[in-house]
Amino acid sequence: SRSINLAVVPGDGIGQEVVAEGLKVLSAVLPQDVKLETKEYDFGAQRYHATGETLTDADLEQLRRHDAILLGAIGDPSVPSGVLERGFLLKLRFAFDHHVNLRPSKLLPGVATPLAGQPEIDFVVVREGTEGPYTGNGGTIRKGTPHEVATEVSVNTAYGVERVVRDAFERAQARPRKKLTLVHKNNVLTFAGHLWTNVFNRVAEEYPEVTTDYIHVDAATIYLVTDPARFDVIVTDNLFGDIITDLAAAVSGGIGVAASGNINPSREFPSMFEPVHGSAPDIAGQGKADPTATVLSVALLLRHLGYDDEADRIDAAVAADLTERTGKPARSTSEIGDALAVRVAG
Amino acid sequence: SRSINLAVVPGDGIGQEVVAEGLKVLSAVLPQDVKLETKEYDFGAQRYHATGETLTDADLEQLRRHDAILLGAIGDPSVPSGVLERGFLLKLRFAFDHHVNLRPSKLLPGVATPLAGQPEIDFVVVREGTEGPYTGNGGTIRKGTPHEVATEVSVNTAYGVERVVRDAFERAQARPRKKLTLVHKNNVLTFAGHLWTNVFNRVAEEYPEVTTDYIHVDAATIYLVTDPARFDVIVTDNLFGDIITDLAAAVSGGIGVAASGNINPSREFPSMFEPVHGSAPDIAGQGKADPTATVLSVALLLRHLGYDDEADRIDAAVAADLTERTGKPARSTSEIGDALAVRVAG
Ligand SMILES: CC(C)[C@H](C(=O)O)[C@@H](O)C(=O)O
Ligand SMILES: CC(C)[C@H](C(=O)O)[C@@H](O)C(=O)O
């Protein structure tokens, strides 16, 4: 019989609330014969304050044993900026080699967008997750003096670029439009830019059916607001991916519905799924958070584990729920979760 | 008697056309007693193909003698990506220490924006121009092999950050709302991020009237489309500034009206003024380019040289022209230039 052994990290702020709804929908969608086991972990601000720990080697040993990880949100104003981000989120992505950071954007009919004219938006960003300016390489000399120098080193390898570019070509090939756009800044960041561009062009030869193009990251932000329909699959560097996926989320229904997967395609390590939004401490504990992004992250998780039908059912339930929201009164976090659980079970 | 000794670099693509209109408006706005001398330089793709040169030491010696530089656009598909960008544009910014890269964004009533609901947009981005990931620091080993490693080093100094942060505080202080936002990614790029944040907070103490806040660059792209009215003055790093000013241009009337100044506030070297748009080779030579961004760059140039009244007259002429465009047939590059020249002279 089948089983899913899931690590659950509610985390900080609204993390608890949204993860509860994600699990509710997951239980509702899974067939009877699939045994769902969950284990909750207490990572986040509270544990950091109590113990000084963010993510220990022993924690990583435990997490490794799971099939996947579902995360709510990590981050709290009481912790200095960077401590939990580098100490937990990025540490996990690097330790488990989550090199494919997958972030789909789809604007459903009737869903609010800041853009005029309700444009067609349906693309996926494949963001590199283990290299670029995120490696923590760099340092500071003469800290706090008028002569301080601080560096950040973006590290890019042919190995790291090729595997994520290849993943993006596979995804583009599997979609109806079969189009892949490389986003970088190769006219200024020429060392990294040439590596990305050369690897991209070389791998492209193996995918003659996929149409390719290249745009600079600054121009990409323009297209995301003036002509988002031009995008099908985007592959990009870790930092550019961070920036453009927040913008992509904003134009395609908002950060409340943006899901992401931190994926290790080889399955050597468990992959981690999380909403793109953060812990939103200002609305935490009030039942105001939209759990949709977490529920959609559960769908990405199911797809990664091979439960495609169940993932499709979640996507369809969310689409129906979103398109029917217009004009209705706002619902609480658990009301939205309940509605989605009913839909996927039906 | 007063005089302006201007270096003019039409450059590539639509550069020629838009610069001609910029000069037309400049001549029309200047009082009789101001002597305008211009000297044209042939930098760009053609000279590169003919001589292999982009910007020589002798060129820099000549350019130094001018009061300011007006640039159209540099860049052509016949030149490999990065050659003219690094070899001319960035070389000039670095050689003349253009550390304040000024990019105002203002959405005028009636002007088209991709955003719904015609939001209020009136802010200025102060982008650092001589540091960060733009220094060209970095390199490549094992190029073209499966073991290639390419690095890009972002270099940030207390000296460089403080002077641009100070400039931004001065600008914020002089505006009615007196608000300054630091945009960075200090939760991930912790070395550079802490330097920026610490310098920002320290300088803030000297400007008690200025309200300050901080947002991550990814979140900034969200606010730029959902709540652009929250911004008054933004100060940011070279690369983040590059990215968010293209987005800012897109939402506030388009790249056709986005002006920029590459400013050396000490006036030790001439400052350079250019439209944010590129050379747009696809529409070059057809009289289709909108010269407004260049004309607004001329206004920034005049303001930098102390001709505030003349700069105000250009801004007012452009505002009037833009708000009256709606519903009218498209005009050619020179028709728009003529109309603006008439307005500023009147
Ligand atoms: C919180 C932060 C470390 C993270 C990132 O920059 O990757 C977040 O912005 C995201 O996009 O997942
Ligand atoms: C052309 C390029 C070098 C330049 C930059 O990245 O600064 C441009 O995008 C700009 O914003 O002026």
TrEMBL record, chains A, B:
Pfam families, sorted: Iso_dh
Upper lineage: Bacteria, Bacillati, Actinomycetota, Actinomycetes, Kitasatosporales
Function field: Catalyzes the oxidation of 3-carboxy-2-hydroxy-4-methylpentanoate (3-isopropylmalate) to 3-carboxy-4-methyl-2-oxopentanoate. The product decarboxylates to 4-methyl-2 oxopentanoate.
EC class name: oxidoreductase
Similarity comment: family membership: Belongs to the isocitrate and isopropylmalate dehydrogenases family. LeuB type 2 subfamily.
Residues given in the record as Mg(2+) binding sites: D218, D242, D246
Main location: cytoplasm
EC number: 1.1.1.85
Domain Isopropylmalate dehydrogenase-like: from-to ranges: 5-340
HAMAP family from the UniProt entry: LeuB_type2
Protein name: 3-isopropylmalate dehydrogenase
Site positions for Important for catalysis: Y134, K185
